[in-house]
Amino acid sequence: TTTYRIAPSILSADFARLGEEVKSVIDAGADWIHFDVMDNHYVPNLTFGPMICQALKPHAKTAAGVAVPIDVHLMISPVDALAASFAEAGADLISFHPDASGHVHRSIQAIKSKGVKAGLVFNPAEPLDVLEWTLDEIDLILIMSVNPGFGGQSFIDSALRKIEQARKLIDASGRDIRLEVDGGIKVDNIRRVADAGADTFVAGSAIFGKSDYKGVVDQMRLALG
Ligand code: DX5
Ligand code: ZN
């Protein structure tokens, strides 16, 4: 049976109170903390870097003191130098967009050599072709169901077919690879995304847009069954 994971994106949190926001969403049941890094170059927006990741790391644990993984989504180019900084800042998983790196295989190795799990991210109009040469190396596939750069956009339905494709590739590989989906995930569509084969769900505005984070996370889990 699938272990579903919910990864709230702090892109939609209150940046003036980020530490408390991370704590609150973990108390609400977050499995991972999704950390969206934007550089105003690869995407037309600017967020936060390794120093903020390092500052949040001590807050990324449950009340019982269990560490909650920090899931870093790099929307930056170039990739390698900052990926290394994020590994040192406490990232547990680092994903990047293949078209943002001149040497995808090298970037994956650079991340893994720091003892961090590595993922590849696919934009809505990008095929999964590069997986033919990288599936054996990675720990996570992240399918974008919006164009990267902003929270609060609508889910692009063609992502469902790509999720199905990715699920087939993962199952055929027999490897333990997480299939994460990012963008426009809400209580009312999370079940469809899971049915397509996803096991890990990023949600920003759906969670941080409500005052009762736990209410939303509970409803998502209920929908996942
Ligand atoms: C978009 C980011 C997403 C974003 C999702 O570039 O990668 O993680 O925060 O936000 P929602 O859930 O609001 O679509
Ligand atoms: Zn993201």
* Relevant CATH superfamily: Aldolase class I
Order of helices and strands: EHEHEHEHEEHEHEHH
Helix content: 25-40%
- DSSP, total strands: 8
* Mean pLDDT over the residues: 98
Classified by CATH, the class is: Alpha Beta
**Computed structural class:** alpha/beta
Small-molecule binders = D-xylitol-5-phosphate, zinc ion
Ends apart, CA distance between termini: 11 Å
Domain unit count? 1
The general outline is: globular
What share of the residues does DSSP label as strand, in percent? Answer: 15-25%
Could you name the ranges where pLDDT drops below 50 across 5 or more consecutive residues?
Answer: none
- Total helix count? 8
Our Rg estimate from Cα atoms comes to: 16 Å
Strand order of the largest sheet: 1-8-7-6-5-4-3-2
The CATH topology label is: TIM Barrel
CATH architecture: Alpha-Beta Barrel
Pfam family, one: Ribul_P_3_epim
Enzyme class: isomerase
GO molecular function: D-ribulose-phosphate 3-epimerase activity; metal ion binding
EC number: 5.1.3.1
